[in-house]
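Practice problem: predict the structure.
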Amino acid sequence: MIPAAFEYVKASSVAQVIALLNQHGEDAKVIAGGHSLLPAMKLRLSQPAVLIDIAAVSELKGIKTNGGTLTIGAGETYHAIATSNTVKNACPVIAACTGQIGDIQVRNAGTIGGALAHADPAADLTAVFLALGGTVTVQNAGGTRTIAADDMFVSMLMTALDSGELITAVNVPVLSKGQGASYAKLKHPASRYAIVGVAAVVTVSNGVVSACRVAVTGAGPQAVRQPSVEKALIGTSGDAAAIKAACASAGADMEYLGDIHASEEYRRAMVKVYAARALTDAIAAARA
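Answer:
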């Protein structure tokens, strides 16, 4: 399958990308790794007239901590993130998640900004980002703004990004003592996309779960939080019985997808299983 004809521009700065997006509007698409966009183009589901390559834009690189925040440039690859000591020390669940995306070729090209901007239903980072309660910094012709994780994912392949906006950085909290996070997924054996993936972030204070965020990907059209699970676990000891009781409602109010890899019913069952696994590991990490 061959994409429709398009103009290709290799951008060298964020300013150039923003100018091109404003010039061409909906006819332009941004590409970094291209693992989601290129297949859609080959199927003619997406037919941009202009393709803007941002892989070489140095302003979109960089990994650093500032106080309680870890900031990752939107153009950083999965491999760079997975192998970064800064990420491993500040928020190890991000490193662990990116380290299991696709294969080495995918990890060397795919970027964190692209994963969040495209919001593929089976993407891993969407759930982790949502569970961490991060933010993205986006830029347009008028300046910059911040989008919270809870507002980011609207529907399948749809985000809160406006036309002409580019994600420039991803910000997540630095995990401190008493906090733990984990991502557990049932992966497709070939693509390693999440058939069901669950991310959990918990805080344990004086032996009791005092805060909890749980998010699911792969099972439905977009990553979503599980407020009923979170509410049920807060105030408990976080032991096996408490986790089992909390996960009884996991996925109860979700919209599900079914395909050749897993039915809606199977995904519904696996949400409970992987929510329990993620919470078990996150609580263990918080107590370590």
